[in-house]
């Protein structure tokens, strides 16, 4: 697929995946609309194993970014900014937004959201129980299927 006039939606990610170009879409997204070129560079450091977009239970996703102070969030965000964006996204989901799928890493027995933490919080706030995600594992694809089947 040619990267012109990309919309960075789940539908578009599915189309890239069907053509065997999911990883290409991920890097295009992270380096533009996703505004996360550092993550893109990190992902390119070694081979990753990818599945997705795949429909998962949103409650299984663990955020690494947020305003919570009583948890071990890796990345903190000011409450006001967080709430504004999450509420905005929740409204968009309620209106049928075809959002980019969160990008999730298998970490032990956890599906850790590495990109899309605000979208994940907004999905929960909007009462959406299942959503499309892209999952990667650093070692092998079997780890992804194992955790999805638990």
Report on the biggest sheet: 5 strands, mixed
- How many beta-strand runs? 7
Task: Tell me the structural class.
Answer: alpha/beta
The Cα radius of gyration reads: 15 Å
Distance between the termini: 34 Å
Chain oligomer state: single chain
Q: Determine the fraction of residues in helical runs and give it as a percent range.
A: 25-40%
Mean pLDDT equals: 94
Describe the structure.
By secondary structure, the chain is of the alpha/beta class. Helix content is about 40%, strand content about 25%. The protein has helices at about 10-20, 20-30, 35-45, 80-95, 115-125, 140-150; strands spanning about 50-55, 60-65, 65, 75, 105, 110-115, 130-135. Strands 1-7-5-6-2 form a five-stranded mixed sheet, with helices on both faces.
Q: What topology emerges from the helices and strands here?
A:
Elements lengths: L9 H9 L3 H9 L6 H7 L5 E9 L3 E3 L1 E2 L8 E2 L2 H16 L8 E5 L2 E6 L1 H9 L4 E8 L3 H8 L2
Parallel strand pairs: 2-6, 3-4, 5-7
Antiparallel strand pairs: 1-7, 5-6
Helix pairs in contact: 1-2, 4-5
Could you name the key traits of this structure?
five-stranded mixed beta sheet; 23% strand; 39% helix; 6 helices; 150 residues; alpha/beta
